[in-house]
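This entry is set out below.
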Amino acid sequence: MYTFGSRVRYSETDECGRLTLTGIMNYLQDCSTFQSEDIGLGISYLTDRHKAWWLSSWQIVVDRYPVLGEKIVVGTWPYDFKGFYGYRNFTICDQNGNYLVRANSVWFLFDTEKGRPVKIEPEDIRGYGSGNEKRLSMDYASRKIQLPEEYEDTEPVIAQKHHIDTNHHVNNAQYVEIAREVLPDEMEVSELRVEYKKAAVFGDTVYPRISRTEEGYTVSLCDERGAAYAVIWLRGTTERM
């Protein structure tokens, strides 16, 4: 497992003084990025070889939201590689080792020059371990999210510069930030799933379609033709702790 310690900053908290959902995702993304950089397989290495790891799906379970000033330990490890897919777990723990956040993710290796996924070779994953590490104990959901037939259209969002990352696409966490803006303010998200369909870029118009479900909400972020950039499923209640 690769880990780093941190402390929840004021700039990362919501109106209740807790780490935001986007903040949680940023910590998880940072952890895997730090690991790749530290073993020499980071952004520069991949860019030089016209490759990139792109995220296919998230499943994030929030056991408890970290609070302002709390010291946390963020960890990650890949547990399997198949074809062009990589499977990676994440955790955020308190100082006593208790889980605050547990997550699973599916990634794929992409050839940016040829514009297609590419088979993972040994040199692409050296330093990550055997890929046979034990999976995190959690109820694993399908990376595919079923779309409800009924939905409500909400105001479109233009992809701005602050949404874009080093891949020149809307960052993975920013799709959730966009979806979170159309949900009730008082909603307490306890589990999040995201299925990424295609990348939005600067200037694209994103049309959120929101559906109420028994567990919470499903938000589909679509282009002007109704094709989804990302589908986000959120379990939760409308009661804050």
In short: The helical segments are 21-38, 43-48, 122-125, 172-181.
